[in-house]
Amino acid sequence: MKKLKFPDPDRLQVSLAIVLLICGVFFGVMASHSYSAPGFWKSWLGFIKLRPLHVSSVVFWILLSAQALVNIALKNITQRKIPAWINWSRIVLIFIGIISIFICYFNLQFGGREYWEFPAWIAIPLLLVWLLQLAGMLFHLRHIPSPPVYIWMWYTGCTFLVFTFLENYLWLVPGIQNTPVRDLMFQWKSAGSLVGSWNQMIYGLGMYAMVQITGNTKPASSPLAFSMYFLGLVNLMFNWGHHIYILPSHGAVRTISYVVSMTEWIILLRLFYLWLKEFKRKRPEAVGMALQFLMAADRWVLINLLLALLMSVPALNLYTHGTQVTLAHSMGTTIGINTMLLLGIICQFMVPMQMQYGRWFRAGFRLLQAGLIIFWAILLLSGISRGYWQMQPGISSFQSMMLQHTMYFRIMAWSGSLMMSGFYLILFPLLMKWLKNKLPTV
Fold first, then answer.
1. How many CB atoms lie within 10 A of CB 147?
2. Is residue 17 part of a domain?
3. How confident is the model over 353-393, as pLDDT tens digits?
4. Which residue range(s) make up the domain with 326?
5. DSSP code per residue over 261-290
6. Which residue in 41, 223, 230, 439 is a FRET match for 25, CA 20 to 30 A apart?
7. Using CA atoms, how far apart are residues 215 and 212, in angstroms rounded to an integer?
8. What is the C-alpha to C-alpha distance for residues 23 and 18, in angstroms, rounded to an integer?
9. What helix, strand, coil percent values describe the chain, rounded to 5?
């Protein structure tokens, strides 16, 4: 009797993450068209369903792909496999969680907070997924005698992600649930720390990919690399305060978070230096898409960090909080930085070079970058206009302001469609070859 062959669980998880990205992009574009043309698709989905479907799909694309890629990298480093029951238990729980979330959204069953709008009971299988992930990562740790900085980033990110995920559900505690200010404070704080947690994992993967591309391991173990790691860790733990400037929190919280946020200027200056150095370096004419995605992420880190620092200034935060400026920052982070890095790492780990040179990949990359910069700029302009409107005395009605912004929203929707075209030119050929088992994995 022929022995059954099961797919590699991490490869299967990356495939699922790509499907979620395909869905998330579609839901996001449809939501933006629904926003700019009220009534669009209202009888079937409508904005009330499209927005949480988009947010959850994209969040889980980031989390699941980062999780699987860390596992693949650790397996490559240690040349060891964790127990199969850990991997397959994680995969089963992921499918239970994702399918339950989609069913609840399509049936208008909500019950959570930002990023986690689904009913609270679904958090149980998701929490078990991350605890199993942490257990599997600890299995590898004993086989890494002198961990470079990206190893520390992976373990820090995973540990804090479990912590912030639990913190996000403090609203279930009656004393917090019945106090709106506390509820908002924990909601906004945990959301900011969540992004910092997955950034640790993704930036560590980016550094590991650059080591693989260049063959130079020294920068990943240098004192400067660890200094930047600790600076990022401090920001993960303390800079969330700029999310709650408008809440009546203790003055020390706002002061500490402001000072910590301003230390990110050190990272910004370092990025300027590295980018200029990279720009002056002579490169080969043809490079794989892995490096193209990583370079695109580097540019978006620079752009988005500058915006984040400006938003962290209390006087400016008063104008920008809750406007499309915040959304521009979020989109620049999730698409420009996180998604570009993850796609670059997927290309580096799993996609043959001949496929990366394909015309569909390159055409998709250009469309994606063009659509994203238009999308980001329109959100920024719309947010600045709204921030100016809401701080003026004797302002016009909200409805009239929104009608004046109709053109902004339409450009946003069509630039999103341009991005979707770019994404699909990359993702569909990749997924099709993957399903046909024509793409290798490490």
1. 15
2. no
3. 666 667 788 889 999 999 999 988 888 888 787 777 777 76
4. 263-389+408-437
5. HHTHHHHHHHHHHHHHHHHHS---S---HH
6. 439
7. 5
8. 9
9. 80, 0, 20
